[in-house]
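Box 3.1. Reading complex inputs
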Amino acid sequence: MKPKQYVMDALYNKTVDRIPWVPFVGCHAAKLIDVTASEYFKSSANIVEGVKKAYEIYNPDGLPVLFDLQVEAEAMGCRLKYAETNPPSVETHPLEQGKDIEDLKIPGEADGRFPIVLDAARKICSGLGNEIALYGLITGPFTLALHLMGTDIFYEMIDNPGRVKKLMGFCKDVCINTSRMYIEAGVDVVALVDPMTSQISPDNFAEFVSPYASEVFDSIKSKDRGCSFFVCGNAKNNIEQMCKCGPDNISIDENIPLEYVVETASKYGISVGGNIKLTVTMLFGTPMDNINDAKNCMSIGGNKGYILSPGCDMPFSTPVENVKAISSLVHGEVSEFLESANVLEGVEYDLPDYVNEKQVIIDIITIDSESCAPCQYMVKAVKIASEGFGDKVTYREHKIKDKESVVAMLKLGVTNIPTIVIDGQIKHISIIPDVETLRGEIKEALDKKYGG
Amino acid sequence: MTKSMGDKVTLKMVTLKEPCTACVILDGLLKEMLEKLRKEKGNIEVEIVELEHIRDVYGIEGVEVEKFPLLLINGEQVTAGTLPSQRRLMEIINLY
């Protein structure tokens, strides 16, 4: 199966045999090709090169063609400030500077940076579109309205709700037109990215966002493309409202517990994505931190309707090795990655001489049974199965957050987590055995040691 | 808190040097809001701190919740990762 199909199946809430991986490479792609963020966002050639580079080194199942929530705003008259290592930011708001909603024009193919962005999108889709799922990201209607009106929008929601609804209706039309342009460029999924909705209550969301976002998703679905609703920040209270808007998928950051979103979205048959910690893990963590965080997300998200991805676009300076570490986990190549990345230089772990040891030794390789549910069940299964054998059987958990445990894992030849190894022989990978099976295997190992 | 006419009120915004796109938007809106307040009130001093590394936040007095952007008024944290209401901010400032 092609990588793209993993994303599309998970997006449409189907069960997949491998969780798809979509690193949100935005301005980080600029770093990959050694240009500034400013140079990146203003050049079609740089965007194409950056996305291709991300495809080559991160082995993803999907990628956004661009992660810039200021494109539409700029095309409608907002002045942007470009930065060396960040996406551009909006400096002025036309509706704050005397313009009326009627003065605003829906941006088309020729406006602002759209010629650059759409040219890049077409080239990326024609080059990579058969292999991976490509996302076109549009600025959500509320965030776009904030760009146009500034923070006055929060007062206007109280003082003049009719004006805000008029603006939201206009922004909805912009969203539909931008999604059309991305779809015509060849994207598979349109993501409506509306991070600023995390700043409003569920009631305000239902009144000022839902009717407009729902119409955008209807429009995307009518064009036979997948659609996702991205939010950042603590939007836990709005997740249910987001589901009611009818996207195929909801993507969140680390501010919302993934368990809660999976549970809520599943009631609506909607898939989920995101949640890898952007700052603590991806920007400032180690490769092991990234493997652990991603594994934790995967164990919560599960094989039905979960797309592994960061909470938002990855910061410019995200270490490449951190992203590669997650890719290695997704593709079952953690040991190879850790060996090649020299993460374990100088770390020692001596395996016991299993054949000559007096006890049967069970090694359980986990992330951490205190934080990872499958790991917890696997350790519990071993504990119960070992009962009654007295001191002839011993077991120990190797948590791969410890480097010594990773060395043990490599020496045992384990590539997936959690795994049970009995006397040096890999017995169960990822799947938790029933206690009877496990007891039978322990007896077999005892018979080998002491004679049956 | 005791109010004394003309006392300086310091608004310190703390954010990351490399935030995600969503935080870039939030940062921009908060900076604008602080600038408007500074222009409106004569006794406000605005300080923007951009952290190279998240651990640098431990060196900033008054920070209790490490979500960005965060805002301190005279060393007391009033927001974390959210955009405050300008009217509410003004109410708090008027208490100083």
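In summary: The radius of gyration of chain B is 13 Å.
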